Amino acid sequence: MSVDSQDSPAPIVVKPGPDYPYVYSRYLEPIATVPLGVPVEIYTEDAFESHLYSSEQRPSEVLGKYLNPQSGPIFIEGAEPGDTLVVDIADVELTRDWAVSSHIPDFGGLTSTTFTRTLQDPLPEKVWIYRRQENGRFSYTDKFSVEPHPFMGTMGTAPDLEVLSALTPSKHGGNMDVRDICAGRRAYFPVNVPGAYFYTGDCHAAQGDGEACGVALEITGKVTVTFGLIKGKTVTWPRIESAEDIMVVGSARPMEDAARIAYAELVGWLVEDYGFDKWDAYQYISQCGKMYVGNMVDTYYSVVGGVRKPRPEPL
Amino acid sequence: MSVDSQDSPAPIVVKPGPDYPYVYSRYLEPIATVPLGVPVEIYTEDAFESHLYSSEQRPSEVLGKYLNPQSGPIFIEGAEPGDTLVVDIADVELTRDWAVSSHIPDFGGLTSTTFTRTLQDPLPEKVWIYRRQENGRFSYTDKFSVEPHPFMGTMGTAPDLEVLSALTPSKHGGNMDVRDICAGRRAYFPVNVPGAYFYTGDCHAAQGDGEACGVALEITGKVTVTFGLIKGKTVTWPRIESAEDIMVVGSARPMEDAARIAYAELVGWLVEDYGFDKWDAYQYISQCGKMYVGNMVDTYYSVVGGVRKPRPEPL
Amino acid sequence: MSVDSQDSPAPIVVKPGPDYPYVYSRYLEPIATVPLGVPVEIYTEDAFESHLYSSEQRPSEVLGKYLNPQSGPIFIEGAEPGDTLVVDIADVELTRDWAVSSHIPDFGGLTSTTFTRTLQDPLPEKVWIYRRQENGRFSYTDKFSVEPHPFMGTMGTAPDLEVLSALTPSKHGGNMDVRDICAGRRAYFPVNVPGAYFYTGDCHAAQGDGEACGVALEITGKVTVTFGLIKGKTVTWPRIESAEDIMVVGSARPMEDAARIAYAELVGWLVEDYGFDKWDAYQYISQCGKMYVGNMVDTYYSVVGGVRKPRPEPL
Amino acid sequence: MSVDSQDSPAPIVVKPGPDYPYVYSRYLEPIATVPLGVPVEIYTEDAFESHLYSSEQRPSEVLGKYLNPQSGPIFIEGAEPGDTLVVDIADVELTRDWAVSSHIPDFGGLTSTTFTRTLQDPLPEKVWIYRRQENGRFSYTDKFSVEPHPFMGTMGTAPDLEVLSALTPSKHGGNMDVRDICAGRRAYFPVNVPGAYFYTGDCHAAQGDGEACGVALEITGKVTVTFGLIKGKTVTWPRIESAEDIMVVGSARPMEDAARIAYAELVGWLVEDYGFDKWDAYQYISQCGKMYVGNMVDTYYSVVGGVRKPRPEPL
């Protein structure tokens, strides 16, 4: 999939750095201002700002205080609070032939953490370097290899009142770590501030549902998006649309709250845009919904609830 | 899919009733004793024992004190505590051309419940009768219709010490409401008592992930299974195997505990049966795992964590 | 505090064993049948059936499959389903001069558990023997000593449909581990079966809120209670009354569900018995409620919500 | 209780407004710079900036977009990142003879919320004006009255990286809503930025544990504090000390994570400052800890775990 064609406008290229923000903030200076309807190629660092590259390293010795550098903020022309930012994701390109995963102390889904506190010792620190094989798959071992499914772990807009860590997923998007923020999807985010202040980053060559150890196949990337706006109408939580499906990402703890958000918002979407009665919508997701876990490791856990776009049918 | 063939032994037919148990109990008299390796056809009532059949009814007036009648217990010859019961599911046949869903007061995923208590009024009671259409799909409205995916909402064995409601999913299986308890799957349950005391029921013509309103397309059914045993080795939580995947069902609250159980058990499975080092297994599910929500409505919530069966590959 | 007086009827003495139930079950043979209004002295084993008595022992080597032996069932004359069992607790006497606490693998509030699963090693097994000092306090070290506050960790009635482990607290009472099940309190439990089938056990010489490591000062005891009935009216969750306060014990996970249950039931109690409007009751607990954590270690966590008995006052 | 004495330095008076921050932010201009060791009297607005004063009002029509105006930031001379800010609370004075509580739509402990989403209608909006009676108690009805216990619902320091809503409690303190932030207590907060950037507000004339409906007796106030520093040593979560007890406030969801944080930090405190072995500390809180719910309504729930200061005793 590519945005390059004779009819397309020349893409705008956004190369951030060397100083990356580690927050979703309305108070930072935009690194670019872009119009609607034009492909924008955004380069992104990996979650460790490329400081982790060898299985000999120990994350606690190498990494700085903050994780997850973002490419942004990008000012979207015409975006006003109360609008919805529409992001068509044309392509997520991996710009490196290796990816890194690791154990970070007190972080992950199958360990105690700084919030789910125990008196146990943390898991041992480890680093894995996955290399792209000739068949295109990523591997560090003969036990298994990983089919690439490139997507952006983080994407979203600046919150209105708060400045949130790039490790946090919430209503504004952020660190959702859901595999449907990938090529071919349209994402919707709330516009909270003039210009929306779009950020993205945390490219994953692949990731299992839940991102169990907390660290996917972290890699540098280039994401190509085109921005649009729905004027005067906002979304409360991030939405995703594919050719077939509509989806909502809920982020909260406990995980059931994330699940409730995703499905309750989906009911609302069906009522607003598909002419459903509220109880019919509840029935539809009850019988046809799909729900997977995006992450079970971040400051909030993200759950994706989706359903096929309904098509009227004769009884 | 069918077990009928010239070489197959004649199936054993188990027709339960008229008195159905509403528990998973070791103290009940078996309704059948079956050998290993022979197809067993088990007829099942719907979750409302067929008392709900019209959209004019109000569940609170019609339904009795207990829900979810089970077909069982079935005594499995040769099963001893410490073994694993292997259940090959050949077929789930729907034995009715209509299914029922409903709102039950204080029950469901998008309402307060008897545990997630609020001071709000409950959702209005409602009943929907879905009828099978000429195209095979189920519908009650022109807004949407449902592709059948028949599966058993409940399946499992008697616990050791406790007698648990048929509405409860836990280590013994029970009311997991996960769509992979369907034709073509092999399920594994712990054997806690001599004869295992197998139960099943709660056939669903289809169900969305999470069973959002708490009631799927409830229907009568006939499930065809063949039993096997793994002697002297037990599973702690229910496992499922397809041609491609291995899966574990965790049931707990909050939902993240169900997710942790599913993935932690999956790590154990990879270590035990696939020769994985523990950290390789954690990496494998971190990068390749799939995780969906079975139910977010029952006394415990069920989450399925799965992964492709690993195949050694050259580096 | 004592029930012995010249006017009191002679107390009934209930000495259970040697075979103790490890469940709350309606299916067991009563060990005693007692009338209303007469003091009943019930002897209880400690949670380890006295098998743990030395800091040299390892719990995993010494303990059997089940924990928390109960004294019961005791058949209460006249109790019928739909009634409320009233239990006036006159005294909890410690019948030993030492108590035991320990680390049980994968059990406790500051460790991963069989439900909150992680890949970490469990905490080391340990046993502490606390001895009663001359000043009446319990101690094993010069770092601290413990003022006795004897109470019963478990108390309740048989559930209707299920047989539940004596480790489980729920609507029927059971393993709540709340310090207000002590002398001078009146407790209320639902009657689910004829005779109520009362059980108690798990005497604690003292316990901190939450029972953080999962094991209090476990000790043998003798509890003196007098039973009463409220006919034709039941409670949904256990209630406790002191001279000054009314309290409800909610048991659930996540812990906020236990908290919601306790306060929602308290609102109901104020409406039913104290003539409160629902919103006044909600205001009253919002401004005057007390809420402490009973246990954060058992199969459900128990939270106690209470408030002063309201007294009308001139404006 | 008063800081006025002949030897005391004259107190510094901080009167904020008219523009109040609704965040804990390092990026705002300090409203005052204060030295260590001098009493500081800080005036505070109520949580609704005094816009809610009649039971005829509807909060959704009257209130602005943000709640919980703060008095701050106050720059503390000499405070550097890595220090601990010590706050001795001498007095919390109520500066009004009435207080207000209310139902805010989709907010509170016994209602669905914007995170615990359901499809039910919200509770009806209501406002209650409590007036101080001649006996000093607050009341709006003859059903009950409330003994004042003035405390500050919010207090803390600016986070390092983020800007957080004044409705959020976390590691920095903030909207903890715990009744031990009152006169006679010493509170400890982390210093994350030069000058600490201290904020306080949300004075409560009284509040029940959990702040069940989400709104306490909200009132304007004047809090008198004296600041100190522990140089070169920080606390991870807010700590409180009284003459008898040490306490930690954990804020998280689910509520058990808040409880784990509070007790795990308390274990650490006993190890660091009282010479306890880790397992002795775990035993001490297991047998002697107290744990109450501060709030079950805010963006994170706050739980207070405390224990008597240990005193060595002869065996």
From TrEMBL, chains A, B, C, D:
Alphabetized InterPro entries for the sequence: FmdA_AmdA
Organism name: Actinacidiphila oryziradicis
GO MF annotation list: hydrolase activity, acting on carbon-nitrogen (but not peptide) bonds, in linear amides
Origin: domain of life: Bacteria
One Pfam entry name: FmdA_AmdA
Protein's recorded name: Acetamidase
